[in-house]
Amino acid sequence: MNTVWIVLPVLIALMFQLGIELDRQAFAGVARRPAAVVAGLLGQLALLPLIAFGVGLAFRLPPVYFLGLLLVACCPGGSSSNVFSMLAKGDVALSVTLTALSSLITLFTIPLVMGFAARFVAVHAGAAIELPVGKLLVQNIVLLFLPMLCGALFRHWRPRAARRVHELLGRVAFPALMLLAAVFFVQYASTILENLGVLGLAAGALILLAMAGGSLLARLFRLRRAVRRTIVIEVGMQNAAQAIAVATSPLIFDSGEMAVPAIVYALVMNVVLLSYLKLLPKCTDETASEGA
Q1: Which CATH number fits the domain that encloses residue 66?
Q2: Using one digit for the tens of pLDDT, what is the confidence trace for 203-215?
Q3: Domain ranges, residue 243
Q4: pTM, entire model
């Protein structure tokens, strides 16, 4: 069974849910807090792919896993980051703004970054992996932009029904992702277990370095505590479902192996971010105001 037929409905539902969250306030946040938005987007769109590139080289990942890890880093923040931001007492409005903007911008940056990565792998590792840029762009528009647009229009035309649907999707989103991870794990169990050590360390390094980089960016921009926490989460938490969809899509890479780093990343990401949330309340008010 091709797991792409499981991940596609999950991804479309998540993007539809994100679209329901979008309103004028989400994008008005760009004008209200430009420094925070710039810091968050720099972390997600520039710093994170660079970190993934360095981690992939440092761990000497095989070409297919190197591209898989970089693919995760190129994806936008997941809609679950909004929930994590709320639990961390961060700036939820900023989280929604960053998730929305990164989801739109990465429609175009994913083909660019992955195209460069594919050429790098071909030159330095001798592994020719084709990237049909046009098909990737079309798939991103169909799977990401259109569900977001439909969600936003649904909210505009049927606000009460949209709230109910949003609550329902919010309850089923995480179990659906865990089901996806379980199905994928069963299908590729031997490959995942064989590479779990190196990929787990690589994914952990990527997440921790991304969170540290997000915290550093927020400090450089002199942002307040709640905003810093949100940027740490947004930079450290990417849309693994989208990475799996791109990797396993018959139109793009058609590679289950390339999706393995995304599954490992999703598991490690939840452990790291739940630990991050657990550690936050232990900070005193004075300490927390200085920490991420």
Answers
A1: 1.20.1530.20
A2: 999 999 999 999 9
A3: 4-279
A4: 0.86
